[in-house]
Amino acid sequence: MAISRARGRAVPLLPLLLLILLAPLIYSVSRLRLSWAPEQLPHPAAPKRPDVLVLGPAAGQGRPDRLQCQGLKAVNKISLSSERKDSGEPVSFVTVFTTYNSHPAGAGKVPSIDAVTVGKHSYSKEERSMAILNTFVSFIQVSMPASKVIILTDPKSKLSINQGRATILPIEGNYSRGNLMLQRIKSYIAFLELKLEEVDQVNSFRNYIFTDSDMAVVEDLGHIFKRYPHCHLALTFRNNKGQPLNSGFVAVRGTSDGISKAITFFKKVLEAYNLKYMKASRMLGDQLALAWVVKSYLPSAFGKFSRPEIFTEEVNGTSVLFLPCAVYNWTPPEGAGQFHGMPLDVKVVHFKGSRKRLMLEAWDFYNSTSQLSDMLCLILKSGRTKYDF
């Protein structure tokens, strides 16, 4: 029994010995992990975007329905000036734009550290958005010289524009960056309600195309209203499951019936936005709400978005013309990926995101050549690069 009690009180020496031997190793490993903590690592530098145009191969070569280029010369597209025809019905372009700096556009000296030079002009960060807006108007004056441009803006915005056929229309609202896409829909509704009062008082009318300001209209769009006289509204679609409709281009027939139907449609989009997509209010809320309204009333339309063909359907009593983005809202793809070139019948080029520098470069190139077709080759050959805007 004495031996049994002695064994019960014995200390297990092997685990204790292992702990003593491994203690220095455990300490070293813990120190090593601390020294390699993620917050201690230097952040990789963001890749520097080029400050000049980077020309690559023109995608879509050999395809008869795509723009063909030899260098910066278009070989299969007639100059717009030789083919322009009267579209028959007057069109006004409407865009929402505001400024977020305390100085009027163009005031002050351009800081050299922040300046971007395009052609003979240098732009500070504050001046770039105004340069884009002026270029947007300039393209319209070339391709549709009889059209007007209406800029909806915050009454507090210090906005001035030196373009003959462009006017500024202040509309009250919240134009903060995080609320701008929601405010855009509200501004569209307010504008259309004003126009509905006017059209009821006079016999004449104008059609309206609501667009982003980072677009270049390169062909007359009046044919939309002439060829499809029974449509109240036109939207642009693409083969994109998450965002099949792009809110940057919406056409509205300027008759009393067309404006009334468009107001009802936009109010449905606004309602969906407020109820479902406020968390995406800064960027994508309007496009998600737009798709939700169309899908709610017309789920069959989504099956047609994979084919770039024009079609017409009714959405909650509104006759909607669906136009392919490939022609009416074409955007050069960024970076790697499938890219089949520029459709030969492209009518609107959308310089989204970091492509805005390319919009200014394209306008500068057009001014030196007076050839819109050649300018499209410039866009096609450089549109896959991310620039500094």
N-to-C CA distance: 89 Å
Low-confidence stretches: 1-8, 32-39, 102-108
Strand content: 15-25%
SSE order, one letter for each helix or strand: HHEEHEEEHEEHEEHEEHHEEHEHH
Helix tally?
11
What is the CATH C-level name?
Alpha Beta
Structural class: alpha/beta
Largest sheet, described in full?
8 strands, mixed
Characterize the structure shown.
The protein has about 400 residues and is α/β, with parallel strands linked by helices. The chain has a single domain (about 70-100, about 115-380), classed as Spore Coat Polysaccharide Biosynthesis Protein SpsA, Chain A, CATH 3.90.550.10. It contains eleven helices and 14 strands. Helix 4 (about 125-145) packs across helix 10 and helix 5 (about 180-200) packs antiparallel against helix 7. The radius of gyration is 29 Å and the shape is globular. Residues about 1-10, about 30-40 and about 100-110 have low confidence and may be disordered.
Q: Topology, please?
A:
Elements: H1 2-8, H2 13-35, E1 69-70, E2 73-74, H3 80-83, E3 91-96, E4 116-118, E5 121-123, H4 125-143, E6 148-153, E7 166-170, H5 180-201, E8 207-211, E9 215-217, H6 223-227, E10 233-237, E11 245-252, H7 256-276, H8 285-297, E12 311-315, E13 318-324, H9 325-328, E14 348-350, H10 356-369, H11 372-382
Parallel strand pairs: 3-6, 3-8, 6-7, 10-13
Antiparallel strand pairs: 1-2, 4-5, 8-11, 9-14, 10-11, 12-13
